[in-house]
Amino acid sequence: NIGMEAMEDKGTWLVKGMKDRAYNRDREQGNPTPFKQVNRWFNSGGLGWGNLICFMSEQKRFKTGALINTAIGYLKMRKRVLFIDFENGETAITTRTEQSVMDTDQATILSSSLDRRMMKLFRRYARLKSELVIKRMVAYRDSKATIQAFIQKLKQEDGLIFDIVIVDYADLAASTTGVTDDTKRISDVYVD
Hints:
Blueprint: H1 2-9, H2 18-23, H3 36-39, H4 63-76, E1 80-85, H5 90-102, H6 106-110, H7 115-127, E2 131-136, H8 144-158, E3 164-168, H9 182-191
Parallel strand pairs: 1-2, 1-3
Protein backbone atom coordinates (compact mmCIF):
# COMPACT_ATOMS: atom_id res chain seq x y z
CA ASN A 1 0.00 0.00 0.00
CA ILE A 2 1.86 3.03 -1.24
CA GLY A 3 -0.61 5.60 0.22
CA MET A 4 0.40 5.64 3.87
CA GLU A 5 4.02 4.74 3.21
CA ALA A 6 4.30 7.53 0.68
CA MET A 7 2.84 10.03 3.09
CA GLU A 8 5.21 8.98 5.89
CA ASP A 9 8.43 8.50 3.96
CA LYS A 10 8.13 10.41 0.67
CA GLY A 11 5.69 13.23 1.30
CA THR A 12 2.01 13.30 0.41
CA TRP A 13 1.13 11.66 -2.89
CA LEU A 14 -1.94 13.34 -4.27
CA VAL A 15 -3.08 10.51 -6.56
CA LYS A 16 -1.75 7.29 -5.00
CA GLY A 17 -2.40 8.46 -1.44
CA MET A 18 -6.01 9.47 -2.03
CA LYS A 19 -7.50 6.19 -0.85
CA ASP A 20 -5.84 6.49 2.57
CA ARG A 21 -6.70 10.16 2.92
CA ALA A 22 -10.34 9.50 2.04
CA TYR A 23 -10.74 7.15 5.00
CA ASN A 24 -9.10 9.59 7.42
CA ARG A 25 -11.04 12.75 6.57
CA ASP A 26 -13.13 12.69 9.73
CA ARG A 27 -9.99 13.43 11.77
CA GLU A 28 -9.36 16.62 9.79
CA GLN A 29 -12.75 18.23 10.33
CA GLY A 30 -13.05 20.98 12.88
CA ASN A 31 -15.31 20.97 15.88
CA PRO A 32 -17.80 23.78 15.39
CA THR A 33 -18.08 26.37 18.12
CA PRO A 34 -21.48 27.73 19.19
CA PHE A 35 -20.63 30.86 17.17
CA LYS A 36 -21.18 30.68 13.40
CA GLN A 37 -19.03 33.75 12.80
CA VAL A 38 -16.07 32.14 14.58
CA ASN A 39 -16.52 28.89 12.63
CA ARG A 40 -16.16 30.82 9.37
CA TRP A 41 -12.67 31.92 10.42
CA PHE A 42 -11.42 28.34 10.13
CA ASN A 43 -11.12 26.33 6.90
CA SER A 44 -12.35 23.24 8.72
CA GLY A 45 -15.50 24.91 10.07
CA GLY A 46 -14.33 24.93 13.67
CA LEU A 47 -11.45 24.15 15.97
CA GLY A 48 -9.41 20.96 15.84
CA TRP A 49 -9.08 18.68 18.87
CA GLY A 50 -6.73 19.99 21.51
CA ASN A 51 -7.00 23.66 20.57
CA LEU A 52 -7.07 26.28 23.25
CA ILE A 53 -9.19 29.42 23.22
CA CYS A 54 -8.32 32.18 25.69
CA PHE A 55 -10.66 35.03 26.60
CA MET A 56 -8.40 37.82 27.84
CA SER A 57 -9.36 41.21 29.19
CA GLU A 58 -9.16 43.43 32.25
CA GLN A 59 -10.91 42.48 35.48
CA LYS A 60 -14.72 42.55 35.55
CA ARG A 61 -15.13 42.57 31.74
CA PHE A 62 -17.59 39.62 31.43
CA LYS A 63 -15.01 36.90 30.67
CA THR A 64 -16.77 34.42 32.96
CA GLY A 65 -20.10 35.37 31.40
CA ALA A 66 -18.66 34.74 27.93
CA LEU A 67 -17.41 31.32 29.06
CA ILE A 68 -20.82 30.49 30.57
CA ASN A 69 -22.56 31.49 27.32
CA THR A 70 -20.04 29.40 25.37
CA ALA A 71 -20.80 26.39 27.62
CA ILE A 72 -24.55 26.89 27.08
CA GLY A 73 -23.98 27.10 23.33
CA TYR A 74 -22.18 23.76 23.39
CA LEU A 75 -24.95 22.32 25.57
CA LYS A 76 -27.46 23.29 22.89
CA MET A 77 -25.21 21.55 20.33
CA ARG A 78 -25.65 18.23 22.20
CA LYS A 79 -22.19 18.34 23.76
CA ARG A 80 -21.04 17.22 27.16
CA VAL A 81 -19.20 20.11 28.77
CA LEU A 82 -16.98 20.31 31.83
CA PHE A 83 -16.72 23.80 33.32
CA ILE A 84 -13.74 24.07 35.66
CA ASP A 85 -13.79 27.14 37.89
CA PHE A 86 -10.82 28.40 39.89
CA GLU A 87 -12.36 31.64 41.12
CA ASN A 88 -16.14 31.93 41.63
CA GLY A 89 -17.41 28.64 43.08
CA GLU A 90 -19.87 26.02 41.87
CA THR A 91 -22.96 27.69 43.32
CA ALA A 92 -22.17 31.07 41.77
CA ILE A 93 -21.42 29.59 38.33
CA THR A 94 -24.52 27.35 38.50
CA THR A 95 -26.75 30.31 39.36
CA ARG A 96 -25.23 32.46 36.61
CA THR A 97 -25.68 29.61 34.13
CA GLU A 98 -29.33 29.18 35.10
CA GLN A 99 -29.80 32.95 34.74
CA SER A 100 -28.34 32.85 31.25
CA VAL A 101 -30.35 29.79 30.17
CA MET A 102 -33.61 31.30 31.44
CA ASP A 103 -32.71 34.88 30.40
CA THR A 104 -33.58 36.34 33.78
CA ASP A 105 -31.97 37.86 36.86
CA GLN A 106 -30.50 36.24 39.95
CA ALA A 107 -33.42 37.16 42.23
CA THR A 108 -35.87 35.33 39.94
CA ILE A 109 -33.67 32.23 39.85
CA LEU A 110 -33.28 32.20 43.64
CA SER A 111 -37.04 32.67 44.14
CA SER A 112 -37.66 29.22 42.59
CA SER A 113 -40.47 30.62 40.42
CA LEU A 114 -38.87 29.23 37.24
CA ASP A 115 -37.87 25.82 38.60
CA ARG A 116 -40.57 23.88 36.72
CA ARG A 117 -39.71 25.54 33.41
CA MET A 118 -36.02 24.95 34.04
CA MET A 119 -36.58 21.26 34.86
CA LYS A 120 -38.58 20.86 31.65
CA LEU A 121 -35.78 22.48 29.64
CA PHE A 122 -33.11 20.36 31.32
CA ARG A 123 -35.11 17.17 30.61
CA ARG A 124 -34.92 18.11 26.93
CA TYR A 125 -31.14 18.52 27.22
CA ALA A 126 -30.98 15.11 28.93
CA ARG A 127 -32.85 13.53 25.99
CA LEU A 128 -30.28 15.13 23.67
CA LYS A 129 -27.52 13.54 25.81
CA SER A 130 -26.20 17.00 26.69
CA GLU A 131 -24.64 17.70 30.05
CA LEU A 132 -22.84 20.54 31.77
CA VAL A 133 -20.79 19.64 34.84
CA ILE A 134 -19.51 22.56 36.91
CA LYS A 135 -16.56 21.78 39.19
CA ARG A 136 -14.76 24.10 41.56
CA MET A 137 -11.01 23.67 41.80
CA VAL A 138 -8.80 25.22 44.48
CA ALA A 139 -6.62 28.06 43.22
CA TYR A 140 -2.84 27.50 43.37
CA ARG A 141 -3.35 23.91 44.62
CA ASP A 142 -5.15 22.05 41.84
CA SER A 143 -3.49 21.51 38.47
CA LYS A 144 -4.06 19.89 35.13
CA ALA A 145 -3.42 16.55 36.82
CA THR A 146 -6.29 17.22 39.26
CA ILE A 147 -8.59 18.05 36.37
CA GLN A 148 -7.54 14.89 34.50
CA ALA A 149 -8.15 12.78 37.60
CA PHE A 150 -11.65 14.28 37.95
CA ILE A 151 -12.40 13.58 34.26
CA GLN A 152 -11.20 9.97 34.66
CA LYS A 153 -13.32 9.54 37.79
CA LEU A 154 -16.49 10.68 35.98
CA LYS A 155 -15.64 8.45 33.02
CA GLN A 156 -15.19 5.38 35.23
CA GLU A 157 -18.08 6.00 37.63
CA ASP A 158 -20.67 7.58 35.32
CA GLY A 159 -19.49 6.71 31.81
CA LEU A 160 -19.30 10.42 31.03
CA ILE A 161 -16.90 11.46 28.30
CA PHE A 162 -16.59 15.21 27.80
CA ASP A 163 -16.54 16.84 24.37
CA ILE A 164 -15.44 20.23 25.68
CA VAL A 165 -13.54 21.40 28.76
CA ILE A 166 -13.79 25.07 29.75
CA VAL A 167 -11.46 26.43 32.42
CA ASP A 168 -12.33 29.73 34.03
CA TYR A 169 -9.25 31.57 35.13
CA ALA A 170 -6.60 28.97 34.37
CA ASP A 171 -4.00 31.48 35.57
CA LEU A 172 -4.92 30.40 39.11
CA ALA A 173 -4.12 26.73 38.51
CA ALA A 174 -1.05 25.13 40.01
CA SER A 175 1.80 23.97 37.83
CA THR A 176 2.30 20.23 37.43
CA THR A 177 6.06 20.81 37.74
CA GLY A 178 5.71 22.43 41.18
CA VAL A 179 7.02 25.83 40.09
CA THR A 180 5.71 28.62 42.33
CA ASP A 181 7.06 31.72 40.56
CA ASP A 182 3.93 33.26 38.97
CA THR A 183 5.39 33.82 35.50
CA LYS A 184 6.81 30.30 35.21
CA ARG A 185 3.76 28.72 36.87
CA ILE A 186 1.31 30.41 34.49
CA SER A 187 3.51 29.47 31.53
CA ASP A 188 3.52 25.84 32.72
CA VAL A 189 -0.26 25.87 33.12
CA TYR A 190 -0.81 26.80 29.48
CA VAL A 191 1.99 24.62 28.10
CA ASP A 192 0.79 21.54 30.07
